[in-house]
Design goal:
With about 100 residues, the chain is α+β, with helices and mostly antiparallel strands. It is about 40% helix and about 20% strand. The chain has a 3-stranded antiparallel sheet with strand order 2-1-3, with helices on both faces. The protein is globular, with a radius of gyration of 13 Å.
C-alpha cells in the first residue's frame, strides 16, 4: 500500500463574494499561493483571497469529479454549500499564515 494522499476541493472568494472553485493535494500551500497572488489568472485578477469552504477525499478521481460538479452548479447552490459549513463566510485560513 502506498502513502495515503489527501485531496481537497475548495471554494475561495473576495470582498465582493466572487467565487472560485479549485482542487489541490496541499490546501495550505494552494491557499497561500492565492493569497500572495502567485498564480496569474482569475484569482489574481479578482483578488480571491479568502477560503470559505473545503472538503477532503482520499481519491484524486473523486476530488476531480467533485470539483467539476460544484463548478457546474448555480451560484445559489454554491452559496448554500458554503453557508452549510460556514454561515458567516469567515476566512477559514485566516490564522494559517500569521507570524
Amino acid at each position: 500500500m502506498g502513502v495515503l494522499k489527501t485531496y481537497y476541493v475548495y471554494i475561495m472568494t473576495n470582498r465582493s463574494k466572487t467565487l472560485y472553485t479549485g482542487m489541490t493535494n496541499d490546501l495550505m500551500r494552494r491557499v497561500g499561493e492565492h493569497k500572495r497572488k502567485a498564480v496569474p489568472g482569475f484569482t489574481q485578477r479578482y483578488n480571491i483571497d479568502r477560503l470559505v469552504f473545503f472538503e477532503e477525499t482520499g481519491d484524486v478521481r473523486d476530488a476531480i469529479a467533485r470539483e467539476k460538479q460544484i463548478k457546474g452548479w448555480t451560484r445559489a447552490k454554491k452559496i448554500a454549500l458554503i453557508e452549510s459549513m460556514n454561515p458567516e463566510w469567515k476566512d477559514l485560513s485566516a490564522d494559517w499564515f500569521q507570524g
